[in-house]
Amino acid sequence: MEKLPMTAAGFSALEAELKHRQQVERPRIVEAISEARSHGDLSENAEYHAAKESQSLNEGRIAELEDKIARAEIIDVSKLSGNSVKFGATLTLIDEDTEEEKRYQIVGDTEADVKSGRISVSSPISRALIGKKVGDTVEVNTPGGGKSYEILKVEFI
Known about the structure:
Helix content is 39%, strand content 26%. By secondary structure, the protein is α/β, with parallel strands linked by helices. The strands form two sheets. A five-stranded mixed sheet has the order 5-4-3-7-6. A two-stranded parallel ribbon has the order 1-2. The longest helix is centred in the N-terminal third of the chain and has 30 residues, at 8-37. The two termini are 29 Å apart. GO terms for molecular function: DNA binding; RNA polymerase binding; translation elongation factor activity. Keywords: DNA-binding, Elongation factor, Protein biosynthesis, Transcription, Transcription regulation.
């Protein structure tokens, strides 16, 4: 069973979603199925079929969340230190083409969200950055073409 590295915040988010799906969504869907069933003939009951599909999707997501939580390897970023890039590091980079400063944290696949500044440890940019130090320049092949970044700061927050 392959472990999934993640931050404590990422693990908490998975637990919160699981709890919501089990304690809020599941009873709501069961109620919707009950109500739709009371309308009679199930073969032509669109509400019933929609509720059953909703139940199937919810139960599938619950199973997926339970699997991820069981395989989670929580890494406490606050206990990490050093000046080289590794899992959990928060980086300040400068795009050498546009001179734009960017800030990213390297996190597990399940908690990645580029818009929030969290990039997956398995992404091309993370793979290129891991092991590098402040002042290093990194060339990254992205789907949009090659990019060049200089590492300005490495923090473990």
